[in-house]
Automatic annotation (TrEMBL):
<feature type="domain" description="Putative regulatory protein FmdB zinc ribbon">
    <location>
        <begin position="1"/>
        <end position="41"/>
    </location>
</feature>
<protein>
    <recommendedName>
        <fullName>Putative regulatory protein FmdB zinc ribbon domain-containing protein</fullName>
    </recommendedName>
</protein>
<dbReference type="Pfam" id="PF09723">
    <property type="entry name" value="Zn_ribbon_8"/>
</dbReference>
<dbReference type="InterPro" id="IPR013429">
    <property type="entry name" value="Regulatory_FmdB_Zinc_ribbon"/>
</dbReference>
<feature type="compositionally biased region" description="Low complexity">
    <location>
        <begin position="60"/>
        <end position="86"/>
    </location>
</feature>
<feature type="region of interest" description="Disordered">
    <location>
        <begin position="54"/>
        <end position="86"/>
    </location>
</feature>
Length: 86
C-alpha cells in the first residue's frame, strides 16, 4: 500500500498516511482538526537497461530506410578520407 504525505493548512503539521488506492484522501489534521492537503514530491525513478534513450532504441546493423539514410553520409566521408590518404 502506498504512503501519502499530508500537510495541515492551519497549523502546518506534516504527516504520512499509509492508504489503499481506493481509500478517500484525508481531510482532517490529527493535531488541530484543520483541513489538510496532499503533498506531492519528486519520486526516484531509475531507468536501467537498454532502450530508454534515443540511441539505445536504434539498431546500428539494421538496413531500414531511416538507418540507411543516416549511415550513408558517414560511410561516404570515410571512403573519401581513406582514398585521399592513399
Amino acid at each position: 500500500m502506498p504512503t501519502y504525505a499530508y500537510a495541515c493548512k492551519s497549523c502546518g503539521h506534516r504527516f504520512d498516511a499509509v492508504q489503499s488506492f481506493s481509500d478517500p484522501a484525508l481531510t482532517e489534521c490529527p493535531e488541530c482538526s484543520g483541513p489538510v492537503r496532499k503533498q506531492y514530491g519528486s519520486i526516484g525513478v531509475t531507468f536501467n537497461g537498454g532502450g530508454f534513450y534515443r540511441t539505445d532504441s536504434r539498431n546500428t546493423t539494421s538496413t531500414s530506410g531511416s538507418d540507411a539514410g543516416t549511415s550513408t553520409p558517414a560511410a561516404s566521408s570515410s571512403k573519401t578520407s581513406s582514398d585521399s590518404g592513399a
